[in-house]
Design goal:
The structure holds 2 protein chains of 2 kinds.
Chain A (H helix, E strand, L loop, with lengths): L2 H17 L9 E7 L6 H20 L8 E7 L4 H13 L5 E4 L3 H14 L3 E3 L14 E3 L4 H15 L3 E7 L2 H13 L6 E8 L7 H8 L7 E5 L4 H12 L5 E2 L7 H7 L7 E4 L15 H15 L5 H20 L4 H9 L4 E2 L4 E2 L15 E6 L2 E4 L2
Parallel strand pairs in A: 1-2, 1-3, 3-4, 4-5, 6-7, 6-8, 8-9
Antiparallel strand pairs in A: 10-13, 11-12, 13-14
Chain B lengths: L1 H31 L6 H17 L4 H24 L7 H22 L16 E3 L2 E3 L1 H23 L1 H11 L1 H6 L4 H27 L6 H15 L4 H22 L4 H15 L14
Antiparallel strand pairs in B: 1-2
Helix pairs in contact in B: 1-5, 1-6, 1-8, 1-9, 1-10, 2-3, 2-4, 2-8, 2-9, 3-8, 5-6, 5-8, 6-8, 9-10, 9-11, 10-11
Classes of the chains: A alpha/beta, B mainly alpha.
Chain lengths: 384, 290
């Protein structure tokens, strides 16, 4: 058998095989992703990767998009921006993806933006940093809330309680430093005075000196805000209880996971934080627009992955769904047309909130996307 | 006043841990001239093994003993598998081997355990003790008491037992020690074993306060090394003193100068010690052996 005949037979066989399943009649739609599945940000990247795989499979079972299957091309950058950029180039040049959902950290996302902007391919980032979408870049979007929104939500709550003098304590690593800057910037808008501004390093294990300084700040503080994620806030919370400051303590959405409550222990009682609705899915009133979406996602994720749901996986869900709806609306896999369709996203209900994109807002969330929670009896309690 | 006292409480607690790590450095350095940068991993193993054994249902005291055993075994294995085969290599080579070993241990810990932070329940409650407006956790007293007990036990061992005297003889002059019939290889293995145990105890005592994860060893090794240098490398009393001074300087800097430059202040002190007083506070003067 000559090689050409063999190839023809193969093609024929493939055609027959795919004929049975209409969704495969055409080439699949390739969606790229670069996530930090391993490495220091794995607690973010791992649930994101699980979510993308889970939902791409489900969408395909339901017939795909535009009658075509979705194909997910996923690479692990291990939290390294250099690797992320290399994989981004590979997605564009070799895998020829039509769009990208990924970028676990602000660092990896920022490294990949130029690649997708140049190739004019829509890029939906899953990282928090506000610099990803400010200033607006033509093809770059993001789903998670920003640290600026966290500051605003906290200050709103303080305003409601009539508290104006705040002690700020933040980690010096990326997230904490960025949120500190944002909080300092928006504080005057809410009539808040930052009476003390203390910082601590990424590996620090005792923040009582900084907290004593806050306690002894001239004019005394009425509340303390901690901007950081990881183990730092757990130690701050314990030290805060140890010193008995006797004022409310606010954490950021960066600690919105079970492990924070476990690490901080009884000291976490009464701590308030802004977080996505997903964390308190069961407590949402039935008429809440997000109720059904977050319950569905939570149940499917927890029943298939055998681990508790996290807001980070939720960001990936939102990104994928916004993209898939945009492709369906655009009726095309052309980068510019998908981008235009993403910009037209209105009233999309995701796990992070209700998304209304525009040409000038590539995140589309407002403060209503954040819920104020309080830790009571070792679990999250929805306040508003 | 209360802020000064608070900084002192915080400083001596952290300093006691630095002191124990520095003590581990000193023991091995005296026996072999090797600066064992895997010292911090012993602290990590102490905390992590206890956490995971306790989570598996082992009672806390037993879990702690198990953790110490694992750290001692790791210390002995480090000596037997990495240091001894490189017998006769220069001190720098041996130091690089220990850095490699520390990366390996950290990687294995990441696989065997996980990458999350963990904690242990405090040994005797979380209710802080108020002293003159400042407060100290009961666990801090455990750390200080534990560190004091270890220093005392080590001193008794070194001064009052034959084996301890053998260790001191080896530290003073290895060749002469061998000539009078001391098994210096055994002494070296012993130094690694004891260092492992000291590190593990430090890790267990500190975990309820500072939390632990697979990666806590790196920074502790660095700070412990700085403490040992400050006190004078090779001097056990200096190691303890260096650890406490370093811990105090850090927390006073955080409380009174600027929390942003806390680490910088500590290392600045080390740099100036190295420039002005290279042998450290209590170190023997460096004499080239010819």
């Amino acid at each position: 058998m000559s090689r050409r005949v063999f190839a023809a037979l193969l093609l024929g066989a493939a055609a027959v095989a795919s004929g049975a399943r209409p969704a495969e009649a055409q080439a699949p739609i390739r969606i790229g992703s670069v996530l930090s599945v391993t490495g220091p940000a794995s607690f973010l990247g791992d649930p994101e990767a699980r979510t993308l795989r889970l939902y791409v499979e489900r969408i395909n079972q339901a017939g795909g998009v535009l009658g075509r299957r979705l194909e997910l091309v996923l690479y692990d950058d291990a939290g390294d921006p250099n690797r992320a950029r290399t994989f981004a180039t590979r997605l564009v040049e070799d895998d020829r993806v039509v769009a990208m959902v990924g970028g676990t950290t602000t660092g990896t996302s920022m490294a990949m933006i130029p690649v997708f902007e140049e190739a004019r391919i829509p890029f939906i980032s899953l990282a928090g940093g506000i610099e990803i979408i400010e200033p607006v870049k033509p093809f770059t979007f993001k789903t998670p809330h920003t640290d600026k929104m966290a500051c605003e939500k906290i200050f709103q709550d303080l305003q409601r309680r009539g508290l104006t003098r705040v002690g700020l304590i933040s980690g010096t690593a990326g997230f904490g430093a960025s949120m500190r800057t944002q909080c300092l910037r928006v504080a005057p808008d809410f009539g808040i005075t930052i009476a003390a501004d203390e910082r601590y390093g990424p590996g620090d294990t005792d923040m009582t000196p900084q907290l004593s300084r806050i306690r002894n700040a001239p004019g005394s503080v009425q509340a303390v805000v901690n901007a950081d994620f990881g183990q730092g806030p757990a130690i701050v919370t314990r030290n805060f209880a140890q010193l008995g400051l006797g004022v409310p303590l606010y954490q950021s959405h960066g600690v919105a996971s079970r492990s924070f409550i476990e690490l901080a222990g009884p000291a976490a009682e009464g701590v308030r934080l802004p977080a996505a609705a997903l964390l308190v899915a069961e407590q949402l009133p039935d008429n809440d627009p997000q109720k059904r979406v977050v319950m569905d996602y939570k149940q499917l994720y927890e029943s298939t992955q055998n681990q508790p749901v996290s807001t980070f996986g939720g960001h990936a869900f939102d990104g994928l769904m916004i993209l898939v709806e945009a492709i369906a609306r655009a009726g095309s896999t052309d980068g510019v047309r998908i981008r235009d369709a993403i910009r037209q996203t209105r009233g999309f209900i995701g796990t992070g909130g209700v998304v209304n994109m525009s040409a000038t807002d590539h995140m589309g969330l407002d403060l209503s996307a954040f819920r104020m929670l309080e830790i009571r009896g070792g679990t999250w309690k929805l306040l508003d | 006043m209360d802020q000064l006292l608070q900084s002192v409480f915080s400083g001596v607690t952290v300093g006691a841990v630095y002191a124990l790590v520095a003590l581990g450095f000193t023991l091995i350095y005296n026996a072999s001239d090797v600066i064992n940068f895997a010292q911090g991993e012993f602290v990590m193993l102490g905390g992590m093994v206890t956490v995971f054994a306790a989570a598996a249902g082992v009672p806390l005291p037993l879990a702690a003993l198990l953790a110490i055993a694992v750290a001692v075994a790791t210390g002995l294995a480090l000596h037997r598998l990495a240091i001894e085969p490189a017998h006769g290599a220069s001190a720098v080579t041996l130091i690089i081997i220990t850095i490699g070993a520390s990366i390996l241990i950290r990687g294995l810990a990441q696989l065997v355990f996980d990458r999350q932070f963990h904690t242990l329940p405090a040994f005797s409650g979380e209710e802080p003790i108020r002293v003159l407006g400042a407060s100290i956790l009961p666990q801090s007293l455990w750390v200080l008491g534990g560190a004091a007990a270890i220093v005392l036990a080590l001193w008794l061992f070194m001064e009052r037992t034959l084996l301890g005297k053998a260790v001191r003889a080896t530290a003073a002059n290895r060749l002469a020690a061998r000539l009078v019939g001391i098994d210096t290889a055994l002494v070296l293995a012993l130094a690694f074993g004891i260092s492992g145990a000291i590190g593990a105890v430090a890790g267990i005592l500190i975990t309820p306060i500072t939390l632990t994860s697979f990666s806590v060893g790196t920074l502790l090794a660095l700070k412990g090394f700085a403490a040992a240098m400050l006190g004078g490398m090779g001097n056990p009393v200096g190691a303890v003193l260096g650890g406490l001074v370093l811990g105090l300087l850090e927390s006073l800097a955080a409380g009174f100068i600027s929390s942003t430059y806390k680490d910088a202040v500590a290392f600045l002190v080390i740099l100036s010690v190295l420039f002005v007083l290279p042998q450290g506070l209590l170190g023997r003067r460096a004499v080239e052996r010819v």
